[in-house]
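Researcher: We're teaching a course module on how sequence relates to structure. For the next exercise, students receive a sequence and then see the predicted structure as tokens, so they can try to spot secondary structure elements on their own. Here is the exercise chain.
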Amino acid sequence: MVQKKESSEKLAALFGLKIGNISAQLEETGREFFCADNKLMDDDEIADLSGEFVNLISGLLNSKDPLKRTSPQFHALEIFFSGLTQRMLMRGGNVEDVVRYAQQLQYSLISALEGDSGITFTQSRSVLLYFAQLFDELIMAVFRIYLNERENMLKAQEAELRETSTPITEIWDGVLTLPIIGTLDSSRTMLVMEALLSRIAKDHARAVVMDLTGVKNIDSQVSHHLIQMVRAVQLMGSDAIITGIHPEIARALVSLNIDLSGVTTRASLSDGLKEAFSRMGIQVSHKAS
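Model: And here is the predicted structure for the students to work with:
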């Protein structure tokens, strides 16, 4: 530990002496990764990025314990790479570029520091090990922020999918339509039901027309989910009307002995809307030309 500490102190002193050369190499590295082909940064940004990194490394090497992964100086470097990763992802870059950039920073630092006769071979090995461990941790920070961003993106996409998969529309005051497309499983049924009941309460809906034109297949479980939705709508004080049942679905419902007593069905969405309007005392007629 004493030898590592001495090596870190000598490394910090050497770093201070060669900081100009180091900064120049790091700027060149930044331009190679973020300016050459993808144009994710301009020269001024690269200069600021390299300068910030040099200051952070200098602060770490001159800290009380440069090897401590929980120190504020090391945490500042993690934040630096986390911010860089987020910036690159927002600009259309990828995490591989950031990882390769971090690796090249390591090589550039070592290249700029090597060849000094004040560091013995044994100490050089400890220096190489120190930088290897340091950058391994920093690259892990890059992947952590990438995975977090990826998870947030997937959650956002899932929320958007849920929104588009439950296109509840108020056709008339008090009349909602819900076209059901695809397959109803337990998870989706709960989401659709929650969204539908919330809209019923919000809009004070008196009738809900659920159109099954987009449902191609049905089994006992899907039928059960459908009936659950109908009963929930009725418990909210609204009329539930099912439309668009295909002959194949009708035969399946009969063969499955699904109890549809008390459930109003109509052939098409337009017929279902007419039924809803009729129950509300609304008459719809063609305007004379």
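Model: If you want an answer key for the exercise: Residues 219 and 252 are 7 Å apart (CA to CA). The chain has two domains: 2-161, 169-279.
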